[in-house]
Structure formats: C-alpha cells, structure tokens
Amino acid sequence: MPVPLMFSSLAARPRRLGLACGAVATGLGIVYLIAAGAPLLYPSVNAATFGLGAAFVLIAGRARLPTGPVLFALAAALMATSLFGVTADGATRWIALGPLTLQPSLILLPVMGTAFARQPTRLAAAAIAIAAVAMALQPDRAMAGALAAGLAAVAALRPRRETVLVLIISLMAFAAAFLQPDQLPAMPFVERVFYTSFAVHPLAGLAVLASAGVLLLPALLARSATGAAFGAVWLAILFAAALGNYPTPFAGYGASAILGYLISLTALSAGPPSSPA
Predict the structure, then answer these.
(1) Closest to 265 measured CA to CA, from 63, 99, 3, 9
(2) C-alpha 233: how far from its chain's center?
(3) Residue 129: what pLDDT?
(4) 259: CB partners within 8 A, 6+ apart
C-alpha cells in the first residue's frame, strides 16, 4: 500500500490506531520495567490492564451515549474522589479497590476532554467545570493542567461561549492547584521514569521515550477537534511526568493511565476539525 494511502487509512480509524499505539507503548514499558528490575507484578498488571482496556474499547467503543449526562456522572465521581478519596501527603486523588490504588482523574479526565470537543453542550460544559474544580480541590497540578490544555484546543477549534467559559474556569483551577504545595515523593518505577530509565540503560531510556511518542500518533493523524483535544491532554500529561513527580503513562507501573488512554479512544473521531456551532 502506498504511504499516503496507508496514512489515510490509519487516520480514518483513529481508535484502531490508538489500540495499536497502546499495545506498542505497553510493550515498550514492559521492556523498561523488566530491565529496571521492577517486581514481576508491575509488568503483569500493566499487560492485564491493557487487555481489559482494549476489550472495553472493542465492545463499548461503538456506543453512542448522550455526552452531557455521561460527563456529569464522571464529574461527580471526580468530585467524590476529591472529598472522600484516599489521601497521601496532603493530596486526595485516589481510590482503593482491593490491592489496587487507582487515580480516577487519570482515568476519566482524558475522555471527558475529548468527548467535550465532540459535543460542547451546556450540560457538558457544567460537567467540565465541576471536574476542573475537583482538580483544584485534590489538588492535582498535572491533571488540572492537562484539562486546561485539552480545553484550550477545543476553544481554539470551536470558539463559543461554553468552550471559552470552561477554559477560563479550568485555567483558574490550574492556578489554584499550582499555588498549593505538592509534597508527594517520586515512587520507583512509577514517576520520574523519563530520567531513571537512562540510568538503567540507554536503550531502556529510548524505549521509554518511544512509548511516549507513539501515544500521540492518533492525535496527529485524526485531524479532528476530538483529535486535537486528545493530543493536547496526553501531551500535557506526558509533559507533567517529565517535569514533576507524576505517573509516567505506560512506561511506568500503573493501571490508571493505561485505562485512561484506552477509554479516551472511545471519544476519538476522524475527520477535519469541527467548525464552530
């Protein structure tokens, strides 16, 4: 197949491309975890999480649920986490499910930002505003910044009252989160992986960088408003992982980022950027 046709075919199926990219990133992350001497549980959990997430995308990815009510329910879950979740070193970002500790914002915010790009209704905007406030309450600089980045992409492509207003709210939430202390230490094999991987071996470091780069391919080829939001959110998450003590998606140990990436693929659509409605 000629290269232009191959890229056109991939762009028309951003979810399938995303699944392929997720599989590659998971594999590269497992290479790093094994090379770094991480406990066997870590790569096993990452691999199992990818399998479950991929199954969800294939089974539920075609569902067309009303965006506003779904986003409102997800925002309520994020607010509940902020108020009643697991607290560590002054941050309340997690929930405990048996032996697993999950970060709901890393699971839910990417799909919320991507879905909002598709249908920026008033109800959806209200849900996004609640999610932004939840990030300020937790506080979580990384996810507050990721949400603001995704909304900036949406507002640029679909400039209307709802998109601009929630962008302003998200920027205020990011500022509020940034002004609060973040004293969480880096967890081995979870955070600061962009740096520690090169201490393991240069090839391990290159595998980690490649795993990050491949995650952004669906956004580059989707050429849609949802693709722009998807790319902005995940670029910001990766940027935060490079700058601070925040989880490194796929390369580091953790189910939340893998689930968040795969679930956000369900809101990704192909086509040119949406025009303002």
Answers:
(1) 63
(2) 6
(3) 98
(4) 49, 52, 53, 102, 106, 107
Q: 177 near 82, Cβ under 8 Å?
A: no
Tokens found for residue 117: 């790009």
The parts of the chain modelled with pLDDT lower than 70 are 1-12, 61-63, 65-66, 270-277
Residues 121 and 67: beta-carbon distance below 8 Å: yes
Cα-based distances in Å from 100 to 29, 97, 103, 126, 254 = 19, 5, 10, 31, 9
Contact of 243 with 231, CB cutoff 8 Å: no
CB atoms within 10 A of CB 36: 20
Q: For the residues of 2-67, what is the DSSP string, one character each?
A: -HHHHHHHHHT-HHHHHHHHHHHHHHHHHHHHHHTT--THHHHHHHHHHHHHHHHHHHHTT----H
Q: Is the dihedral of CA 20, 251, 94, 163 positive or negative?
A: negative
**Identity at 11, one-letter amino acid code:** A
Asked whether 152 and 158 are in contact (CB, 8 A), the reply is no
Alpha carbon distance 23, 161 (integer Å): 38
The pTM of the full predicted model, rounded to 2 decimals, is 0.93
Please state the domain extents for the chain. 3-265
Please give the Cα distance from 112 to 110 (Å, whole number).
Answer: 5
